[in-house]
Design a protein that fits this description.
The protein is of the alpha+beta class. The chain is about 35% helix and about 20% strand. Strands 3, 4, 5, 6, 7 and 8 form a six-stranded antiparallel sheet that branches. α8 runs parallel beside α9. About 5% of the residues have low confidence.
């Protein structure tokens, strides 16, 4: 039985909590709608609000206040109100989905760093799975990739600390640190019989989101490591660079989105738009007006309708899937590789004050044909698993040119197309890329004959 003083304290805390909730809900909704007021959603996609859903669950609020009071009185150590309320907010958001989160002061800095392309740490994109930290993808040319960390690895210990039970944000904070310092990660790898320990040196991570080169004469390759604020313009420049390198005789392009964890939505729209003249790229649907968005292609194909192959795998997520899904539905590219990650949700950052905010999942996104990628991913048009291929050594064949006294060719000799040693090595160890290049050559030949 609660005494009179405890009951009075409970009622006071309950009333304060209800006042806080009533004050915060309109603020968050108003900000969400104000932040995207210039976007005109489709009227047919708007969702009617259920009036009954606006009533406060008094029984559950009383239960919350009761638990709050009991912790304050009976927990083994004294805990201040602010800590308890912040813990409650964290738990409330963490229970929704893996991508909603409470943004405390350092989280805003981390968010800015990830979109700008420069931060300190190891260079891995991570998520949560069964209470452990799962590597979505190592970022290209970072300490994590060089140390042998692979997409799909589970991190079970960071230095001497077990990660079971800690939040994703805590794990990220533990992995970040002063450049040059060492960290030991204990990993569970798919092909290993026992956990593996890897020592990694932290570094300043500067990610160039777009890289390009010619694999062979006339066949371009663009690698997008993640979608940052400048990825769209950088991608268009990469296409122009490939055109210049091939003396404007560019026959096809491979866009590599493997192990690309996503990033800025607008950057994904810009990359897809570089290859499309018209039509829908992506649209989103959610419960509030500001989450009803539609992005359409603008006139002009920077690649001038040349054949296109897009590489994806299980590490291709979010913005990568937007690009692959749009180009697949618009029949602009052949998608090759393995099924993508399957993150088809949109997160919105809602500030609570100058230091705190929440990252809340507010919508699902859909491809032009109305497909939701959530938990399914993009299925490639041609499935090619990652593999190592060793060419057989065979005895050399004698040809006409090897015979003594053979007739010469009246057109002279033909020189093979040059391929750099670096690209030969790349194609030799990357079976999926090699298959993509072979497919691109076939598409180029077919389009030339049809033209």
């Amino acid at each position: 039985m609660m005494n009179w003083h405890t009951n009075r304290l409970l009622i006071v805390r309950l009333n304060l909590l209800m006042v806080a909730l009533l004050a915060l809900l309109p603020m968050a909704t108003a900000y969400a709608e104000e932040s995207t007021a210039n976007n005109q959603p489709d009227a047919e996609n708007s969702t009617k609000q259920n009036p009954a859903s606006n009533s406060l669950p008094l029984k559950d609020l009383r239960k919350f206040a009761d638990v709050f009071d009991r912790i304050k009185k009976a927990y083994v150590e004294d805990v201040d109100d602010s800590t308890l309320l912040n813990n409650a907010i964290r738990g409330m958001l963490a229970g929704l989905d893996p991508h909603s989160a409470y943004l405390e002061p350092t989280a805003f800095d981390d968010l800015q760093e990830s979109t700008s392309g420069e931060f300190g740490g190891l260079g891995i994109e991570v998520g949560m799975e069964a209470g452990f930290i799962k590597v979505i993808t190592p970022i290209d040319d970072t300490p994590a990739q060089e140390a042998g960390i692979d997409a799909g690895d589970l991190i079970i210990k960071i230095d001497d600390r077990n990660v079971k039970g800690i939040s994703l944000q805590e794990a990220v904070s533990l992995m970040r640190g002063k450049p040059g310092t060492m960290i030991r990660l204990t990993l569970v790898k798919k092909d290993a019989d026992a956990p593996v320990e890897i020592d990694v040196k932290r570094s300043v991570i500067k990610v160039a989101s777009v890289k390009n080169n010619l694999l062979e004469e006339g066949y371009g390759y663009i690698r997008v490591t993640q979608f940052q604020a400048q990825t769209g313009p950088d991608f268009t420049k990469a296409i122009e660079t490939l055109k210049a390198k091939s003396n404007k005789d560019l026959k096809g392009i491979i866009v590599d989105l493997r192990n690309n964890p996503g990033g800025v939505l607008q950057a994904a729209v810009d990359v897809a738009d570089a290859f499309l003249d018209e039509g829908v790229i992506v649209y989103t649907k959610g419960r509030i007006k500001s989450s009803q968005l539609r992005f359409n292609a603008t006139p002009g194909d920077a690649a001038q309708d040349i054949p296109l192959v897009v590489l994806i795998n299980g590490g291709s997520a979010s913005a990568s899937e937007i690009v692959a899904g749009a180009l697949q539905d618009q029949s602009r590219a052949i998608i090759l590789g393995t099924a993508s990650f399957g993150k088809g949700s949109v997160q919105t950052v809602l500030p609570l004050d100058e230091k705190y905010g929440i990252k809340l999942t507010t919508a699902r996104y859909y491809t032009p044909n109305g497909r939701s990628i959530q938990a399914l991913g993009i299925e490639p048009d041609i499935e090619v698993q990652r593999a190592t291929v060793k060419e057989e050594e065979s005895r050399p064949f004698f040809k006409e040119a090897d015979l003594s006294g053979h007739l010469s060719n009246e057109n002279g000799t033909s020189e093979p197309r040059p391929t750099s040693n670096r690209n030969k090595a790349l194609l030799a160890r990357d079976f999926q890329l090699r298959e993509a290049l072979n497919l691109l050559k076939g598409l180029s030949i077919l389009s030339t004959k049809q033209g």
